[in-house]
## 1
Amino acid sequence: MKHTIAVLVNDQPGVLQRVSGLFGRRGFNIESITVGQSEEVGLSRMVIVTLGDQSTLEQIEKQLYKLIDVIKVVDLGSRPMVARELALIKVKSEPAERPEIMGVIETFRASVVDIGSTSLLVQAVGDTQKIDAMIELLKPYGIKELSRTGVTAMIRGNG
Amino acid sequence: MSAQIPEVRSTEELREKWNKPEVISGSEILLRSLVLEGVDTVFGYPGGAVLYIYDALHGFTDFKHILTRHEQGAIHAADGYARASGKAGVCIATSGPGATNLVTGIATAFMDSVPLVVITGNVFSSLIGTDAFQEADITGITMPITKHSYLVRDVEDLPRVIHEAFHIANTGRKGPVLVDIPKDVSAAKTLFTPVTTVNLRGYNPRTVPNKLQLDKLVRAIAVAERPIIIAGGGVIYSGAHEAMFEFVKKTEIPITTTLLGLGCFPSAEDLWMGMPGMHGTYTANNAIQQCDLLINIGARFDDRVTGKLDGFAPKAKIVHIDIDPAEIGKNVSPDIPIVGDVKTVLEMLNPEVGRATKADAWRKTIAQWKQDQPLRYKDSETELKPQWVIEMINETTKGEAIVTTDVGQHQMWAAQYYKFNKPRSWITSGGLGTMGFGFPSAIGAQMAFPERLVVSINGDGGMQMCSQELAICAINNIPVKIVVINNQVLGMVRQWQNLIYEKRYSYTDLGGSPDFVKLAEAYGVKGLRATNKAEANAAWQEALETPGPVLVEFVVPKDENVYPMVTQGSTIDNMLMGDE
């Protein structure tokens, strides 16, 4: 089962290493991990997507709390959340194919951010499934380069 | 030679002396901060990256510094000091190889929740990351085996970091904290203002348990027909032995104490069932498998205790009391989880609980098992049996000594045949099983308690892993009584080869071990040898009567096995009981 957790941490050198190292040595899976500034100066928020059953998730939370630099752990999946990732996709495109590819891109509300003589650089934002689906449709044209950020997420509403 | 072990100093006096703001170097800040934390002994080894610190230590007399012969000796000694005294042990090493030599000792302390503050030097800040001479990323290397670690980048942070390090090491679930100090930071000067407060948002150990869970436990005890207690190292670390005694006396629930829990409950008591697990007693292991209520107090359901998890305590309602929430449900999922400090939990429980009245038949069964299946071995009149040696040490010291052990068969025999009645009198590497731990940890324990008898029981294998520390016993006149149970082989590994690997004794015969008596004497420590009971009695008596350190080698047969034994992958009631 896939879980998305947000971890509020002290913005200290080595914190990402502490967190990712914990996952590694305890045999927890990391599907994606993103980290950046939070709303509070001195604190960063990590969003980690992980696979495992409920008891693994419970252990992950408890083990994370043992790290001194971890302030708060929230299981985002337990409540309605918005989860997004960004993908940059360089797709092969001869001038003749461009309109066809543009059609795919528009359907997914993605945008073209650069055009080369034989390629397009596409930017897509959305949940993981949407980006997966778009990549599937672009594959036949030939994907030259793909870079995904991993998921960042937040709980809906005021909470 | 006179004893050079320091007298206990008044921290209050030193506090006044050092508590005034003054412009001093990072090195002096470190030393003053240690004094203000109540440190009286530091174990260490100098080197290039800690030269400023050692320069500040020159002529510094407010705590004692013991120069070991290897960083591994220093950290195991600091560990022994911590386990014996309950205070954080402190050790200092230089960068690179000095720091990496500490790794085994840090991991040992981490596995057994021992509070340590480990100070390492590092290369100049400007050189960090350049593969400079004697550089190692020690905070990175030790991240998985420390409770927390610091790389101090600014001398201004040093007073706060040292204070936090002691706070973290010695609260909640205890553990080692590493403080890495680059050379320029130990040299830099600043206005020192002692730090006395801690502000760590992410660190709030929960000591007071949930009352509802306690009530559930009280009710469970009242209806249990076959209750037992498994008590572990947490009882000792939280200082809960008296509360534990009261709890057992009131409820009359039979108790088994894990390897690290030995001494948290007096072994002479009828309700004590011995140690559980791989080399546990028949009574303890059967009681676990047949109980209907299992109350785990400050133990972590280690695989050496549980055996095959699937079949562990199959009929029991499980209660788990632990300060570390992550231990709850890690291996065994409890019916009643109780997160809190063991002492606080027991002190809250004691007024509420009464005698487990439905368990009379169970108590009788357990008494019968204890009588029918005691620990036993086949004694010999011609050879020295290792179990007999432990019994002799137990009788002559009346169970009053601080006993440290190395790892292996002698460790299990010491756990089985030495009768512990007090907490903090048993020091052994349980979680990591670190060979080389036994002897230097005894030095640390003796530094904590200069007046007590400290006996270090070792095998011939482990003794050779830190034997160089004989020098510091001789030089500082540290009166540890060092026992070497010499069976000429790596006994525990050989036992597995004997029982599981069809007697293929692959590289467990040590063959050319040194003459331990001469080895001791080469370092200036008295050495004695015994090969039969008469010699053993005489040599041991002489050791006890000799002031200062003595090494006694007991030559024992190599084919003696530790029983009972549960092989890996079995449930713990499947015990090999030995020949007799």
## 2
Amino acid sequence: MTTVEKVPATSYQQFMPADRPVQYLAPDGTGVDSAARYARPSDERLLEMYRSMVHGRRFDQQATALTKQGRLAVYPSSRGQEACQIAAALCLGEQDWMFPTYRDSMALAARGIDQVELLGMLAGYWHCGYDPAAYKVAPQCTPLATQLLHATGFAYAEAKQGRDTIALAFCGDGATSEGDFHEALNFAAVFRAPVIFLVQNNGFAISVPLARQSAAPSLSHKGVGYGIGSEQVDGNDPVAMMAVMDEAVKYVRAGKGPVVVEAHTYRMDAHTNADDATRYRKADEVEGWLARDPLSRLDSYLEGRGILTDELREQMTVSADADAAALRAGMNVEQDVDPEDLFRFVYSSPTPGLTEQRNQVAAEIAAGELS
Amino acid sequence: MTTITMAGALNAALRDALTEDEKVVVFGEDVGTLGGVFRVTDGLTRDFGDDRCFDTPLAESGIVGFAIGMAMSGYKPVVEMQFDAFAYPAFEQIVSHVAKLRNRTRGLLTAPMVIRIPFAGGIGGVEHHCDSSEAYYTHTPGLKVVSPSTVADAYSLMRDAIADPDPVIFLEPKRLYFSKDDIELGKTEPIGTAVVRRGGTDVTLLAYGPTVSVAMQSAEFAAEDGRSVEVIDLRSLNPFDDETVAASVRKTGRCIVIQEAQGFAGVAAEIASRVSERCFHHLHAPVLRVAGLDIPYPAPKLEHFHLPSADRVLDAMDRLQWNDAPDLSKAVTV
């Protein structure tokens, strides 16, 4: 096969965006009569997802608290986006890679990254606090949409080497306006890279509403123009979210090309603790989304199915609280920083110029001018 | 010995690297069937296949971002930016990711690659085809930046750049692509090393890429006036070979830095500053720069006013305070 073999015209047409976001659960957690095309996940997986969401929300709450206490420089909360992030994490295989943004901490925690390492960047210790190769999670990316291209090149290269690896790249609604979003979709389509682009459309890019980002029928429709399988889903519906992600993973892994999934969701908190969301959105809008909380939605659904009991719920709360306590304790331990690290990783070995500067800093430390 | 052009030497370097290492891949715009607008990738797709040398969509940020992902997966991408000013859409990927991935991840992920950029002017190109963009890259920690001035170096530096564990910006002087030499291609000095191209005792000329030939020509003319000029080909702008440069200037006591790029805040300014800091007590005169004018690159019919010429270098040389013993006959007495 050549790298520029033409994409069969019918391939992505099997996977075209629905007119309305795919939904399996009503806001109150009862099932809806939907014509959804995707297999419903098993109760066992949904329960696992619920557990992970309980932990995710507790983690998010703890990280927000740590920021108020000055332990983190900043924390971009993803409360309300648990279903999107956790479905994404749970649908991947161990061999697969994630290319996250700064707001995807819950997905990373669900992937199993140590909580203290995960917050290393926001605590100010290093740019990426965890081992990206060990967890198969690229560093959380702050320049918008740039990581989508890395995911595309990576997925293409893995497939080229015969590996069964797919890449899952995260971005938000604002990032779909960036040039790199479009270049990534186009490269992925042309090279049939096994990559999923998950767009968490939470309605705002900091303060700018979706209407100022895009006039497209939906963000998932942007995939259609590139010849990419695309779908839109209610991102606050955990059952639909997992069903669509499952299908996306299956499709991409089968070598049918990339997929764009737009998850319609809402960030319940401000962009970060440094931002005042009341300046750009109304209280009744937030209230409306509270009524569509993904966690209580899945809770009602699983309870209705007789799977989630008070006892289980209690166990999960205790376990999430224990994780939060461990995170608190971990973040209260001041880690050592080594000024030598400033020079260690700029190049494979320091240039003569950097060696001079390293010696200068070492001399300043030895003289007590710096500590 | 065979006669070979710089473009041919670069092509040979890519061929040898593709042959020796199956992880080397070459891609960019028009590098496949066409063989690149300067023919540097001529025949590579034919001889190595479309999965080793391939055309991409026309998007420079896409090319570099895609290369980062491929590098993370174990490939060694060699990508072409078709012209220097067309590399600017890739600037964010280069500065924020290519240069920083190793550092962001404490060395756990790296993105070694070679970004080939046809560089600088002197070919009568229309606007946006003749920029000298080296200062942007040399100012970025994490990147290595090299530029060959000879056919031999074009081959050797390219082989070294591909083998290097760090990302390398490879600036190919456009006006030298079809310069020729009779040589056997092989290894020359490594990245990070400057080379004395002509020995001398009175003044040091520092040049790189397209200005080395200007320096050599200036040295010839100056010799006719009885001045012994040392010419250093810097070859590598980062890492910078302070040692070779300072040793020469301490010997000659005079120094001129030549660059094609506009002078303000340019690479020559950094070099002049380093030379002054290291050689102050050996200098007979301030370190001078001969650079392009502080203007956007001019239209073809005006470029000869902009580009550093041997005359401009000789004029600068004349300003280097050659009369060590003051001429007392002209002293003003009060």
